[in-house]
Amino acid sequence: GMPSAEGEHSPALAEGQRIARVQIETAAALELDYVIPEKLERHIGIGTRVMVPLQNQRVAAVVIELLESSSYNARLKEIASLVGTRPMFTPGLLKLAHWISDYYVVPVNRVLRTMLPQAVREKPETFLTDSHLKLAKEPPPDIFEKMHANAPMQARILEKLRSNGGEATLSELRRELPRATAIIKPLLKAGWITRSEVRVERDPFQTEEFLPSQPLTLTEEQQVAYVAVMKAIHREAGTAASVGESVEAGKIAAIAGQAERSTSEQRPPSTLLLHGVTGSGKTEVYLQAIAQVLDMGKTALVLVPEISLTPQTIERFKARFSEKSDAIAVLHSHLSDGERHDEWFKVHEGRAKIVIGARSAIFAPLENMGLIIVDEEHEPSYKQEDAPRYHARDVAVVRGRIEHCAVLLGSATPSLESFQNATLGKYELLNMTRRTDGKSMPLIRIVDMRLERRKGTEVSFTNTGILSQRLRMAIQDRLTKKEQTILFLNRRGFNTSLSCVACGETVQCQECAIPMTLHKKDNRLVCHICGARRVPPSKCPSCKEPGLKYAGFGTERVEQAVREVFPQARMARVDTDTMQRKNQLRDTLKDFRAQKLDILIGTQMIAKGLDFPNVTLVGVLNADTALNIPDFRAAERTFQLLVQVAGRSGRGEVKGEVFVQTHAPHSPAIQFSRHTDYDGYALQELEHRLAFKYPPYTHVVLVSARGKHETQAEFTLQTLYKRLEQGLPAGTIMGEPTPASLAKAHGQHRFQLLLRSEKIRVLCAHIKRVVDGLTVPADIYVSWDVDPMNV
Ligand code: ADP
Ligand code: ZN
Fold this sequence. Notes:
Layout: E1 19-24, E2 31-35, E3 49-54, E4 57-67, E5 81-83, H1 91-103, H2 108-115, H3 118-122, E6 128-135, H4 141-150, H5 152-163, E7 167-169, H6 170-176, H7 180-190, E8 193-200, H8 220-243, H9 252-262, E9 271-276, H10 282-295, E10 299-303, H11 311-320, E11 328-331, H12 337-348, E12 354-357, E13 369-375, H13 392-403, E14 406-411, H14 416-423, E15 428-432, E16 443-448, H15 449-455, H16 469-481, E17 484-488, E18 495-500, E19 517-519, E20 524-526, E21 533-534, E22 548-553, H17 555-565, E23 571-574, H18 584-593, E24 599-602, E25 615-620, H19 624-627, H20 634-646, E26 657-662, H21 668-674, H22 678-691, E27 699-707, H23 710-725, E28 733-734, E29 738-745, E30 748-757, H24 760-772, E31 780-786
Parallel strand pairs: 9-14, 9-15, 10-12, 10-13, 11-12, 13-14, 16-26, 17-24, 17-25, 23-24, 25-26
Antiparallel strand pairs: 1-2, 1-4, 3-4, 3-5, 6-7, 6-8, 18-22, 19-20, 20-21, 27-30, 27-31, 28-30, 29-30
The structure holds adenosine-5'-diphosphate (ADP) and zinc ion.
C-alpha cells in the first residue's frame, strides 16, 4: 500500500473506521488509501466511484479494496464524496480490469475508463424526466364555468386530464398546447392538479413493433449443440454457487489468476466453439439457450460484430423475448450518448437481463451471468485498435471464468486460434454441418480474370476487369427469372488510384502516403485513412505533365458499369457513401427483401448476417483485395470472407450460385472456399503457421513507434530493437524494424517491430522493462499491441 498525498488535516483513525484503497482514474497505476467518513460508511463498497482529494484537487477514483488498517493511517485523508448511488463496477468487472491490465500491459486506470461509456462516466444518472400530472379534485361547476370564461387554456387542460382518465404527462399536453408549462402553474397552486417527476428512458427502439416469434423445433444437430451448451451453463451455475462467498474483497488479481487455473483441471471446458455453417441455425440455438438462462433467473450477454448489429439482428432477439422486451439492453456506438447512458443504467439497475452489443458491451455491468455468446467470433473488429488493445472474444472467455458462466463462441469460419483451442480440448467443439432448410451449399465458381482479359470478352473497354462474361450472363439469367443478385466489393469510390502516365507517380494523400480514391459523385479525391479531400489535379503534381490516368475500381464504379450493362435492372448501392441518412440502410434492405430491387451492390456492409431468400446469385468482384494485404492472416481473411459472402446465396427455395473473380485462382484460400471445406483449409493453414511459427503456435506482439519526424521515429525503434536484443527471453523471434504496412497515417510516420513467442507474459515483461527504461523524444509515440489483428 501507498500513503495518500500528505495533508495536514488528516484525521486520526477512529475506532471501527474503515479504509478504502482506491485507484485514481486519471493516473496510471496510482493506488492510494483514504479514510471512509462515517456518513458514507454505508454507501461505499468495492467498485464504488468516489471523489478524493489529491494535491489540492478533487479527482475521480474507484474503490478497489476495503481495509481494516493501513500502515500509513496516521496521514490518511478522507474520501470527499460519492459518484452515483451504487457501485459502478461489479466485483467481476474489477477482476476483469486487472486481468486486462496485466495481459495487455496497460495501466488499470485506462481499462477502468474504457469500461464505462463516456456519458456514464461524465454525467452519471442524468436521466431525462417528464412531469406526470394528475387531477387532484374536480372543480365545482360554477368555478369551472368561470375558468372557461377567464382562463380558457386552464380549463382546456383540466378537460384534457379528465378525458384522459385523470392524468397525462406534461410533454403530452405540450404537443397540443405549447405553453402548457406556464399554464399549469396556477392550476398547481390552486390545488386542482398535482405533479410528480418521472424518469423517461431514451429508448432507441421506442417506435418499433416486434411480432412475437416462437421457438422452433430444433434439428438433430441443433439439439446436440443446445444440450451441450445447457450442460455447460448448469455446470458453471453449480460451481458459481459453491465458490460463492470465497470471492471476497481484495486480492483481485490473484483471484482472476486462480479462476484461470481452475479451468485447466479435470472438468470439461466451459467455453464452447459452435462451428456451424451459414444457415445451420446458430442463432436459434442462442435464443433457446438464453430463454433457459432467463428461466434460471440468470442473465446473458450477446456480442455481435458492430457491422452485424443490424435492426434485423436486434429484431430477432426482441421478437423472441417480446413479453420481456424491456429486459433487453442494446449497447453499440450508433446510439446517442443519452440512449447509451440509459441502456447502460438499465443493465446497472438490474432491469436488463439480456445485453446485445458490439465489442465494448463485454463490459456491460451484468451480474449473475449464465451465458456469454460471441457470435462471428473470428471477426477482427472484436479487437480494439487503441489502448487498451483488448480482444473482446478473449476477454469474454476470461470474463466467463471470473463470473462462472458458460461462454459460447459461434462462427461459420472459426479463427484458427479458436479452432486450435478446440482441437486441444481447451474448448468443447460443436459442429453443425447442415443448413436447417436441408439445402446444400451454393455452387462456387472461380473465374480466372487473367483468362477473361485475354479473351477480350468485356462488354466495353471502359468496363475492363469489373464484370466477367460468365458473371454477366448469370446476372442476366437472374433478371429473366426474377431472382435477385448481390455483388460484393470491399472498396468504396469510383477509381482507386490516379497516376501519371509520364513519370509513373500516383497521387497520394500528403498525410497518409496512400493512393487517393476518386469519388465521382462530388468529383473529389478522398483519402480512406484520414478523410482528406482534394480536387483531382489536371497535371501530375510531381512532373507537371498532363495525362493522368485513373485505375482500379470501387463500388461507385461498379454501379455505373452494372447500370450500363443492365439499364432495365432496379439496383441500389450500399456503402458508407450512400448510407449516410439515418434508417437509409434499413430501408434499402427492406426494399431488397420485398423484391423491389433486383441487384444489391455493396461493401462488407452487406456481407454479414443478412438473410434474403430470393437471392440466388452472389458475385465477388475481386477476391484478391484481401489476399494481397501484407499480413500473415491475409489468406485466412480471404477464406472467411468468401465463405461468409457465399452464405448469402441460395437461402430460399432455389440453389444458389457464387462467382468469385480472381487473379490468383490456385491460392489455397480460394480453392478450399470453393467446397466450403473449412477443416481442409484450417489444417493446411495451421501447417503453414506451425512452420513459420505464427499464431496460434506463438503469440505476437507488435511494437511500434510513430511521429511527425521520420528519422526520429525510425531511430527510436532501432534503439528499442537493440535494447530488446539484450536479454531477449529464450524462444523469442524478433523481426527487423520496418515501416508499418500503413507507413504514414494522419501525418505521422510509422515503424514497427514484430516479436513472437510461446510465452507471452515473459515476452511482455521484457518489452515493458525495456520501453519503461527508454527515453523517448517528446513527439514520438511508442506503443505495443499484444495479439494484434492487423500487422
Ligand atoms: P445461422 O445463424 O447459423 O446462419 P440462423 O439461425 O440465421 O442460422 O438460421 C437460418 C434460418 O433457418 C433462419 O431463417 C431460421 O429461422 C431458420 N431456422 C433455424 N432453426 C430452425 C429450425 N430448427 N427449424 C426450422 N427453421 C430453422
Ligand atoms: Zn490521409
